[in-house]
Design goal:
- By secondary structure, this protein is an all-alpha fold.
- It folds into two domains: about 120 residues, no CATH class; about 100 residues, Serine Threonine Protein Phosphatase 5, Tetratricopeptide repeat, CATH 1.25.40.
- The chain contains twelve helices and no strands.
- Helix 1 packs across helix 4, helix 8 runs antiparallel to helix 9 and helix 9 packs antiparallel against helix 10.
- The longest helix is centred in the first third of the chain and has 18 residues.
- It holds the Pfam family Phage_term_smal.
- This is Terminase.
- GO terms for molecular function: DNA binding; endonuclease activity.
- It comes from Salinicola socius.
Length: about 240
C-alpha cells in the first residue's frame, strides 16, 4: 500500500515535471518512471485475451497513476503526454467517465494528441468511447447523463464522423428516458437520427411519442368554473357606499 508521503511525493514531482516541460513533450524523471510503468502494464494487458479480465486489471492498476495525473493536471501547461492520454482511455474502459473527463478537459483545452496508434482525435475518442459505455448500460440507468451532457458541450463544434456524434445523442436520449423526461429524450433521439439514420432510434421515437401523447391526454383540464363563480359573486354583490 502506497503511503501518504509517497503519494504526496509522486504528485509534487509530477507537477514539477509538467511545469518544467511547458508546452514541449513531457519529460523528466517523474514522467519516465510512469512511462516505464505504462510499458509494463500495457505489455501485461496485451497478454490477456479476455476483455472482462482486461477491465479488471485496468481497475487494479489505474490507482498507480492517480498522483501523477493529479500533479500534471495541477501544473501542466499542455505538454504532449502519452501516459496521461492512456490513463484517460483506461478510465473510460472501466466506466470511470467522470475520471476521464478530468483529463479530457485539460487535453482538449491544450489540443493534446492521443497518439499515433489512434486514428481519431481526442474529442472523437472521448465521445465515442463514453457513448459506447453508456449504451452498454440498461436503458433505465441514467447514471452517466450528466457526464455525457458535459462531453457534448466540451466537444461542441469539434470535427468528427456524424456516426460518432449520433451515438452520443442516442445515449443522452436513453438517459433522459430513464429519468422520465420524454420530450428531451425524443429530441435527442431525433438529433441522433438526423446524424445517422441507422443509429436505431426510430422505434424509440415512435414509442415515446405515443407515451407523451397519452400523458398529455390524461392531464386534467384546469378548473375554471370555481374561479368564474367567485368572480361572478363578487361583481353581483351589493354595492356599499363609501
Amino acid at each position: 500500500m502506497t503511503s501518504s508521503i509517497r503519494r504526496h511525493y509522486e504528485r509534487v514531482t509530477a507537477a514539477k515535471a509538467a511545469a518544467d516541460a511547458g508546452d514541449q513533450p513531457m519529460h523528466g524523471e517523474a514522467f519516465e518512471l510512469m512511462q516505464a510503468q505504462l510499458f509494463e502494464d500495457y505489455r501485461r494487458l496485451k497478454s490477456i485475451q479476455s476483455v472482462e479480465r482486461k477491465i479488471e486489471v485496468k481497475r487494479e492498476i489505474l490507482p498507480n497513476y492517480a498522483e501523477y495525473v493529479a500533479g500534471v493536471l495541477e501544473s501542466g501547461q499542455g505538454a504532449q503526454d502519452e501516459v496521461l492520454m492512456r490513463v484517460m482511455l483506461w478510465r473510460i474502459d472501466v466506466g470511470d467517465i467522470d475520471g476521464a473527463l478530468a483529463i479530457a478537459r485539460y487535453a482538449i483545452a491544450h489540443d493534446l494528441d492521443p497518439g499515433e496508434q489512434f486514428q481519431r482525435s481526442t474529442a472523437a475518442i472521448l465521445v465515442e468511447e463514453s457513448a459506447d459505455q453508456a449504451l452498454a448500460l440498461a436503458e433505465d440507468d441514467d447514471s452517466l447523463i450528466d457526464a455525457l451532457r458535459e462531453i457534448d458541450t466540451l466537444t461542441d463544434g469539434m470535427d468528427m464522423h456524424d456516426q460518432i456524434r449520433a451515438k452520443l445523442h442516442k445515449a443522452l436520449g436513453n438517459g433522459h428516458r430513464a429519468r422520465g423526461e420524454l420530450s428531451e429524450a425524443i429530441a435527442e433521439y431525433q438529433r441522433a437520427r438526423e446524424l445517422n439514420d441507422r443509429v436505431g432510434v426510430k422505434r424509440d421515437i415512435e414509442t415515446l411519442e405515443r407515451e407523451l401523447k397519452k400523458q398529455e391526454q390524461a392531464e386534467p383540464e384546469p378548473d375554471t368554473k370555481s374561479g368564474d363563480s367567485q368572480q361572478s359573486n363578487t361583481s353581483d354583490g351589493p354595492e356599499t357606499s363609501s
